[in-house]
Amino acid sequence: MSNNLPSYLDISKDINSNLSDAIETMHPDKIAILVDENTKKYCLPHLHLSVDAQIEIQSGEQHKTLDTCSHIWKQLTAIGCTRKSLLINLGGGVIGDMGGFAASTYKRGMPFINIPTTLLSQVDASVGGKLGIDFEGFKNHIGVFQDPVRVIVNSEFLASLPERELKSGFAEIIKHALIRSEEQWEYLNGHSFEEMDWNEIIPKSIAIKNEVVEADPREGGIRKILNYGHTVGHALESHFLDSNTPLLHGEAIAWGMILENDIAVEADILEKRARDEINSFIRSNYELPHNLPNYESLNDHLLQDKKNDALGIRFSLLKKIGACAHDVLVEEALLKKILK
Ligand SMILES: NC(=O)c1ccc[n+]([C@@H]2O[C@H](COP(=O)([O-])OP(=O)(O)OC[C@H]3O[C@@H](n4cnc5c(N)ncnc54)[C@H](O)[C@@H]3O)[C@@H](O)[C@H]2O)c1
Ligand SMILES: [Zn+2]
Q1: E-assigned strands of 146-216?
Q2: Pocket flag, ligand 1, residue 43 (CB < 6 Å)
Q3: Least confident span in 25-39, 205-219, 298-312
Q4: pLDDT score of 1 more than 60
Q5: Which of 15, 38, 139, 151 should be mutated for ligand 1, with most atoms under 8 A from CB?
Q6: Which pLDDT value is given to residue 219?
Q7: Could you give all domains of the chain from N- to C-terminal order, each with its CATH number?
Q8: CA quadruple 235, 233, 139, 161: dihedral positive or negative?
């Protein structure tokens, strides 16, 4: 399974040797590196690299904006970057998505390398070519599909990551296992969070995402199984965004998976036994958020989902461990019963 990695992705044991190999092949005329205050402090010291510019932005989803892009484009312009220059994005999904977008649109496209430094960005954002920024309150509203020249994944960066961020990324690892690999699920379910061997799990998780993306690059069909847990998850995420205790993406997805499994059982798609096994594993790893929203508020957010059509809300639901259905229409009465 882990052989099935994208050709542009290195599972790295030595970040500096991978990076210098990549740079040697490219011969860039200028090199800029994009960091935020955390990756500057914790990740940049790992790199032995001389650059023409270090572009620093503030961390956080609220800075994944056109204004920040402007700042990046100005700095690239100031040092005279051309289409033969290189931007290295060192950070989590925000830096990867936004730095990649800024590079892809600068002079109609300058090459970039992503070095994902959060678990979430290593197993999820590292593959699939989706780049972009938020706009007017809409997530990833402006963007392009473009693969980086290289993605270098090195688990050593995770040592400085707060446990809550680590758990957030872990939710996508759980998701990948459940939709596609019973074998990976057996491993996860058989170990405590503290025992997880990231070097074992991460390449497998990336390979699962890559298989799905390669089968359906533009999300016409099968790629939608990656949205498992995300229909209810996004609704929870939006709800808590309005409150003063926002959930991390993966935390929302963890609870999204639990509730969507209940929906799948109720809709006779998933067996109770599998649901119980999965849900108790997730519950043991994630604390239930306080002040869960009522059905009406959750339903308001569900109705906003991009995947809906005139007939109603469409879900990606598990059929069993390792297999997922997509475009499942769920009746409102059933939804109400579960989400109440
Ligand atoms: N392109 C895709 O396919 C894709 C997939 C999933 C998510 N995303 C995007 O990714 C973003 C979320 O990514 P994320 O969860 O990585 O969040 P993030 O980029 O905001 O990083 C989380 C926090 O961790 C800090 N950080 C990063 N690396 C660190 C390290 N090694 N040590 C200590 N602190 C570190 C960051 O500064 C930030 O404060 C969202 O914008 C989402 O839309 C994109
Ligand atoms: Zn996700």
Answers
A1: 150-153
A2: yes
A3: 298-312
A4: no
A5: 38
A6: 87
A7: 9-160 (3.40.50.1970), 163-339 (1.20.1090.10)
A8: positive
